[in-house]
Specification:
This protein has 95 residues and is α+β, with helices and mostly antiparallel strands. It is built from 3 helices and 5 strands, in the order E-E-H-E-E-H-H-E.
Length: 95
C-alpha cells in the first residue's frame, strides 16, 4: 500500500475552485501513485513527495470519488469544520 495524507484548500473567488495536495512518504511513492490518481493530478511544484490537483466544482466530484475509493473520508475532504479556507486532513491508501 502507498499511503498519503491530504488536505483540500477552497478558493471562493468568482466560480468555486479547489486545490488538493496529497503528501507521500517519499518521491518514489508519489511517482507510483500518480497514474492511479489520474491525469488531472500533477507533481507538486515545490514538494517532490507530493501531488496536487486543482479544479472547479464539476471536476471535484470525480476527484472526491477517486479519493474515497482509496479510503478518504468524504466528510473530511471538503469539510468547513475548522476553516472556511481548508478542509480537514484526510488519508488515502493506494494498492
Amino acid at each position: 500500500m502507498i499511503r498519503a495524507k491530504g488536505q483540500l484548500r477552497h478558493h471562493f473567488w468568482g466560480v468555486y475552485h479547489a486545490t488538493i495536495v496529497v503528501v507521500f512518504d517519499n518521491e518514489n511513492d508519489a511517482g507510483m501513485a500518480l497514474p492511479k490518481l489520474g491525469e488531472d493530478w500533477k507533481p507538486h511544484p515545490s514538494e517532490p513527495k507530493a501531488l496536487s490537483w486543482h479544479g472547479n466544482d464539476d471536476a471535484y466530484v470525480a476527484v472526491e470519488t477517486k479519493l474515497m475509493s482509496f479510503g478518504a473520508d468524504k466528510n473530511k475532504i471538503a469539510s468547513l469544520k475548522f476553516s472556511v479556507d481548508v478542509g480537514e486532513k484526510f488519508e488515502i491508501a493506494i494498492p
